Structures are given as structure tokens and as C-alpha cells.
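Worked example

This section walks through a single chain of length 134. The input is the sequence exactly as stored; nothing has been trimmed or padded.
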Amino acid sequence: MRRTTGVLVGLLVLATAACSSETPEQNTEQACGAAEQLTVALDNFGTTLTPDATVDEVMAARDAVRAAWQELDAAAGDVAQDRRQALDDAWDGLQESIDDVSGDASISDAVDSLRDEAVEVQEARDALADDLGC
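Given that input, the structure is written out below as C-alpha cells.
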């Protein structure tokens, strides 16, 4: 039991050290991996809870759950930040497109572009709302 917990904690430390993701896709993959590690840690914790378990074994399993939770918490924050950034970028794109329409130009010349930009804002908003569970 102690060996399993030690290996799990070691894997979590390595996963934490590899947290320098750059892209939203990498951040999402990392969050999914962290969620899986939390499941493993919780399963291990449940397995540890036997009448024969020592206090040290339960504490070690608890520590593994804590480490997995912290990893998931950080990774989920990265994903949420990616979503917020995507929404900000989409808004900036729409704002720039509106600003690019000159005062004497016809809106009909820009309407398709503006609709596309508005769709991007809506999609980014939907992704953020999904991540937030709205």
C-alpha cells in the first residue's frame, strides 16, 4: 500500500513539474490528466480505508489526494484563463472590426465580417459558460 501511494505521489510531482503548457489544447489535456490523477488518488484513498489501515497509510493517501486536487485546481484555472482569453480576443476582434468601419462607409460592406466576429464572441462566451457550468 505504501509503495502504491509513494509511486502516485511521485507521478503527481512529475506532472506538476511539467505544468508549463503553452496552448489551450495542452492546458485542456493537462486538466484532463489531472482529473484522472485525482480519480486514481481518490480510489487509492478508498482502498486504504480498511480496519487494518494505519494512521500513516491514511495520511499518505490523504496527501496524495491533496496533491492531485491541487494539480487539478491549477490546471482547471489554466483552462478557465484560456477561455477568458479567447473571449477577450474575440471581443477585441469585433471591436476592431467595428472601429474599422469608417463614418462614411456603408455598413453593408462590413456586415458579413461583423457577423462573423460576433459569432466568434458568442462561441467564446459559450465555451466559457460551459467551463463554468452555466
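What to look for: Residues 7-19 have pLDDT under 50 and may be disordered.
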